[in-house]
Structure formats: structure tokens, C-alpha cells
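Review form for a predicted model. The reviewer records the input and the model, then writes brief findings.
Reviewer: anonymous (R2)
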Amino acid sequence: MRNILFNQQESLHDVRSTRRLEQFAGSSLPPHALMAQAGRAVASLTEALAPHAQSLWVACGPGNNGGDGLVAATALHNNNQQRGLTRRIHLTLTGDPGHLPPDASNALRNALDCGLTLSAQPPDQYDFAIDALLGIGASREPEGPLAKVLSQLRTSPSPVLAVDVPSGLMADTGALLGDEAPPVAARYTLSLLTLKPGLFTCHGRDAAGDIWFSRLGTASRRDRPPTAILCAPKPGTASPARGTPHTRAAMATSLSLAVRAERQQVAMGGAALPGCARRHSDRGWTGVSPASLGNTCLKASSTTQQPELMFRTLGSGQSATA
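Model under review:
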């Protein structure tokens, strides 16, 4: 596990690519093992970020993201037992416990077996919250109880750690589902298995806060190229911060500009220069799509100075958009 400090190049994977990597990683492990690793990583980071917290709220949703939260709650409860801690763990599950995915259903059984109970309502006061409500599969605006809990997390006066992505944040685009609420307290995100483009663009920088990353013990696969590249800033320049105008620009997608260069030798001049112009006009994080993403493109000095330029490939027959 490591903190993303924006001081090195990062590979980003969209939802489709992440799902493939998740399927491959899970196929080589025993049942439920990948979720167990994810939940333990969340619990470990929680212990590090809030070592003196006396009251934790773990907000779980109806999918596998909620399953990660259930595993984390179980690990934190077991830590309480082993170390004689009096820390309270308030566990909520928004959704039908009888209709959870298999891994999440197993996590719920383990949580209840260890002595945890499900609370009907979030606690009135808590020192730290874990947002395991919605993951990378979220595609529509939450409604009903889910929307209510999401609003409580977004307006939480206490620090919040999001599991994989902040709930309601589109992992590919950085668009935010539901009502936007500026964070009141510290926000953290533990991205699991891959780093998602949406964490670094549009609403993602504000919503994600301090980003951490865990590969969950898996190795990087060379046969699964990244969807996008987040370049490191030039030495001596400031890394992009949350809340600056270019990160708050109104953008429909995280990779809103995809300039396709038909020849590799003009990729940097034909694609990066318009991208830089868009960046300097406060138009947000900008995607650049040269026809080839070879080493020559990635190492070009004109682009490594611009961390807002994220490279992505365009599929066969796909046109550039602005």
C-alpha cells in the first residue's frame, strides 16, 4: 500500500480494464480471498489514519464494495478483541441482506458470526467513517435510503475513508452522481487493484481527497496496458491540488479532449500542444490520444511537465472528441 503523491508516473485503468484484472486475480485465489485482502487493507489504513478513534461508522452498500466494508468491520472488531480496545464499531448495511453478491454475503455471515450487529441508523456521532456504499459499478443516481446515507457521508463532519472510489463518483469520468457537497472534514480514498481515472479529474480530486493505492498482492500485468497515464510533474513545479479552478471546471468526462495523431512522429506536436493549450485555459484535466503510446510518446519532455495531460488509446474506428 502506498500514498499517491503525484511525484511519479501512474498507470490508470478504467472500469472495464479493472474488471478484467479483478477476474484474472480472483481466478488464481481461493473463493472470497480477493475481497478478504481488500477488506483487510481498508482496516489497516483505517488503523493508521485514525489510531485514536473511539467510534467508527462503517457504511456498507448492497454490492461487493459493501462486502469490502463488511470485511474491514470484521477485521477492526477482531483487532478490538485482540488488543482489548473499547472502540465502538457502528455497522450499517443499506440494501437487502438476502440479495448480496456471493462474496459480500459471505462477508456478512463472517461479520455477524464474530459478534458484530447491523445498526438500523448511522450513529449520531463518530470519529471516523468508512464509505463502502457504492463502488465502480455505480451508474445511476442513488435513490431512497441509499441517497440518504450517501448524503450523510458527503456532509460528514468527521473524516471519511472511501473504499476504491468515493460513493457516487464515476470511476471513468470523475462525474459525481447525486447532489454535490463540498467536503467538510478530511477525505481519503483507498483505490484497490488499480488506480481509476475518475479519481484524478473533474470532481474526483475534491471527492477523493488523499489517495492511497493497494494492488492487493497482485503483480502488474504487462499484457493489460493502462487506459490512461497520469504523468509526473516536472521537478520544482507544484503538483495539482484539490479545489483549484482547473480541477473544478465543468467537464462531461475526465478525458474530455482526445486528439488523435495519425502518425507517431507528430503525436506530441499534434496532440500534446492542443492539450497544453486546453489545460492552460482552465478547461480541466485533458486526455491526449496519439495513435501510438510507445515509449517515445510517454517520455517526451513536453508532456511530462503537464500532469493534467492523461494519455489514452482510441479503439479501432473510434473518433476523437472534444
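Findings: The longest strand covers residues 55-60.
Further findings: The CA atoms of residues 278 and 286 lie 7 Å apart.
Recommendation: see findings above.
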